[in-house]
Each structure stands twice: as C-alpha cells, then as structure tokens.
Write a structure and sequence with these properties.
The protein is of the alpha/beta class. It has a single domain, classed as TIM Barrel, CATH 3.20.20. The chain is built from 13 helices and 21 strands. Bound molecules: (4S)-2,6-dioxohexahydropyrimidine-4-carboxylic acid. The site of (4S)-2,6-dioxohexahydropyrimidine-4-carboxylic acid (DOR) has 12 residues, from loops.
Length: about 425
C-alpha cells in the first residue's frame, strides 16, 4: 500500500525541514521525501496550501473504556482524535476498572486495533485501583503496552508510596505523570479560588492545591531520578517550580491544555458546569504565565485532557456535575487561537516531536524509515459545533467559537483515516 502526501509545506523539526515537499509512505513507513514524487499506484492526499507534519500525539486523553462507555468508547474517542488531527493518543487509567492489570491493558490495546483509527497507548496506574495503597505491576503493564504510569486525578496522598513506586519502576524508561491537586486543599471546590469564586459564593480551589503537589512530586523525581511529567500545568508557581527543578537537572517535562491557555475563571456567572474542570480555569495572571511559558520553552507539550461526559451529566448542579469536557476536536484551533504568532515548527514540536520523545513511541518525525503517521492541517477558520463532534462528549467551552486552524487529513501507518471531513477506519480505506 502506497500513500503520497502531495504539495504541502512539510514541517519536521526533528530533521530541521520547513519546505515544500511530498511524503511517500509504503507499507506503513516513510520511504521518500522530495519534490514531485511519483504518484503512480499511490493513494494521493492533496496537501496544497496546507502544512504536513509528523502525526500529532495527544499524551493526555480519557477514553472511558472499560466501564463508562456511555461517555466515550475507544472507537468514538479515536474517531474524535483523527478528526482533530491526532494520529496517536495516550489514554489515562481512570477507567472502571482502572488500567492496573495486564489483562485490562491488553483489552484496551485489542479494542483500539479493532477500531482501526488512531494508535492508542495506555497509561498504567501507579497504584492498584488508583487507591494510593498498593503498587501496580509496572513490568507486566509495560509488557502489555503501557507507555507511562499515572494515578491521574487520584493524586497519591502518600509520598512514601510514590517514592517506592518510582524506585520499583526505575529500570523502566516509562515516565511518571502527575495530576497535581492536593485533595485536602482542594476540598469541595467547583472552580478556582479568587475574585469570581468569592463574588459568586462558590468554593474555590487555590492555586496552592496544585503547587504543593508539583513541589512534592518534583522533589520525589529529584530523589529517585525518575523521568517525570507534570500534566495540565495551570499556575504560575508550578512553572517556577518546574524551572527550578530543571535548573538542578531533574528530568521533568510538562504540558498545558487548550482551555487553560484560552479561558479564565470568569465563566461561572450562570452557575453552569460547562467550564468545570480539574485543575480549574485560573485567573489572568496564571494564564499569562502559561502563555509566556509556551513561548519561552518551559512547556514541552500541547495536550488536550480530552474528558468526555454526557450532556445530562454536565447539566447537573455545579456542585455535583463531573469535571472536564471534550478536547480532541478543538485542540488545533484552540492552540492557534491562544498562540497566533507561535512559529509553526514550535507548534509541531509541542504536538508531535516532544510527546513522541517523552513517551518513547514511534513517530515524532517523518524521516525516511520512520512510521507513516502524518497530520495535515491548515489555517482555515471554522466554527465549533459540539453537536457534530465524533466524541460522545458533546460539551466544550469552545462551543460556538470561531477557531483559526483545523485538521485537513490524518494518516496512521500509511492509511488515510481522516480526509474531507470523513473518518475512515483503516479496513475501509480503498487499497
Ligand atoms: O477535568 C478533568 N476531567 N480532569 C481530570 O484530570 C480528569 C478528567 C476526567 O476524567 O473526567
């Protein structure tokens, strides 16, 4: 099977390429990059006036399977991924049951293969059932396909357990990923603590709830020398702590989400839960710090924290409605909106080169011999209509907004799985 991506502007930071180039993929791998490559016997993807990049990798999604398939399935989540321009996703272990055994992880991998859309990389739990007590079997989880470990939103309370976990997994290259929120400092917060929460009389989570766990986990990383990744950074102090740690040689990387770099904590006047998320949307000074940190290189990754929920669930009272919303299908546009003047090479680095390196997964470059995963995107304005999402989660604070960038085509292992607004599972792709 041959696929030719023709006529686009190829941006591959790993090779230092930013030029008009065709990309030829054969049997799942890149076999040539050049001008006017021969299209005979190839499926041609027209990338005229578009950017061609190594396949985007979202290292933070929630696919809800097993256990919460009314919110999302691996099939619907990976359809959303490829429609949003992502060739790969790494899925968090907060499923039911959690991704804490080889059998469950193998089943996720198998279902992703059946779906035949994006590559799916499970993230294994750090503790069994994410309960913070007993360590998960990291080596078995790694053998079953896990690429990283995290207890996701169930931040382990016990630093001794976390330290033991990092030591036990020390011979694995797998990064530990921290969702940093101190449950006691957070309490029953529904939003950020600040002027808006006080005015509305709602309980807010202070930035401190994030900062203390970032500090703790980075110190554990320094002590154990385990590679560590801080998920969805949302405060200025977290960024300072990350810089402080890096200056001391701690192997730490970090990510942002589209919502934290676009929105503020001023979206709760109607007491609705549409913008309720963990960690919460913050004040302008934090958003400013996050934006600056993208420009100055502190932030390594653009993730989504795609967290689909049913519309009925999000319509509940703010105090009980679940946290999060869909992110895969707005991410390219959301990031382009927040960073209109970010060089495209940096945009691609944050969405592909860096996540591939941090997770140690295929891709991140289109060098000859690498995997044939490609994201084609363009600066074409479009208006978000969440009802049209492939994701089962039809909720996003970006709904109704006009965004400046969108996915044009997504190719996974040489198969065109998204083009002309249509999602095409691999086995339906014409030869
Ligand atoms: O808002 C969030 N929702 N943040 C998380 O970390 C978890 C996620 C979910 O699973 O719904």
């Amino acid at each position: 099977m041959k696929t030719l991506v023709r006529g686009g502007r190829l941006i591959d930071p790993a090779q230092g390429i930013d030029a008009q180039r065709d990309v030829l993929i054969e049997n799942g791998f890149v076999v040539a990059i050049g001008e006017h490559l021969d299209a005979s016997h190839a499926r041609v993807v027209d990338a005229t006036n578009a950017v061609v990049a190594p396949g985007f990798i979202d290292m933070h999604v929630h696919l809800r399977e097993p256990g919460q398939t009314h919110k999302e399935t691996i099939a619907s989540g990976t359809a959303a991924a490829v429609a949003g321009g992502f060739a790969s996703v790494a899925c968090m272990p907060n499923t039911e049951p959690a991704l804490d055994s080889a059998a469950i992880v193998s089943e996720v991998v198998r279902r992703a293969e059946i779906a035949g859309l994006a590559r799916v990389y499970p993230i294994g739990a750090i503790t069994k059932a994410r309960a913070g007590i007993e360590l998960a079997p990291y080596h078995l989880l790694a053998d079953a396909g896990c690429v990283a470990f995290s207890d996701d939103g169930a931040t382990p309370r016990n630093a001794r357990i976390l330290r033991n976990a990092a030591r036990y997994a020390s011979d694995l290259p797998h990064v530990f990923i921290s969702h940093c929120e101190d449950a006691d400092l957070k309490g029953d917060a529904v939003m950020n603590e600040g002027g808006p929460s006080m005015r509305l009389g709602l309980e807010g989570a202070p930035g401190l709830a994030e900062d203390v766990i970032v500090a703790r986990d980075l110190l554990v990383a320094a002590d154990t020398r385990k590679a560590w990744h801080i998920a969805h950074v949302s405060t200025a102090t977290s960024l300072d702590l990350i810089r402080w740690s890096r200056a001391r040689g701690v192997p730490v990387t970090c990510e942002v989400t589209p919502h934290h770099v676009v929105f503020l904590d001023d979206r709760f006047d109607d007491y609705r839960a549409d913008s309720k998320v963990s960690p919460p949307l913050r004040a302008a000074s934090d958003r400013e710090a996050l934006r600056n940190a993208v420009y100055d290189g502190t932030i390594d990754v653009f993730a989504t924290d795609h967290a689909p929920h049913g519309l009925d669930e999000k319509a509940q009272l703010l105090s009980v409605a679940p946290v999060g919303f869909s992110g895969l299908e707005i991410a390219l546009g959301g990031y382009a909106l927040a960073f209109p003047d970010l060089p495209l090479a940096r945009f691609v680095t944050l969405l592909s080169t860096n996540p591939a390196r941090i997770l140690g997964v295929p891709g991140g470059t289109l060098a000859v011999g690498s995997c044939g995963d490609v994201s084609v995107f363009a600066d074409r304005a479009w208006t978000v209509d969440a009802r049209l999402f492939r994701s089962k989660g039809k909720n996003t604070p970006f709904d109704g907004m006009t965004l400046p960038r969108r996915a044009i085509a997504t190719i996974v292992e040489g198969a065109v799985v998204f083009e002309h607004g249509r999602v095409l599972p691999r086995d339906e792709v014409p030869a």
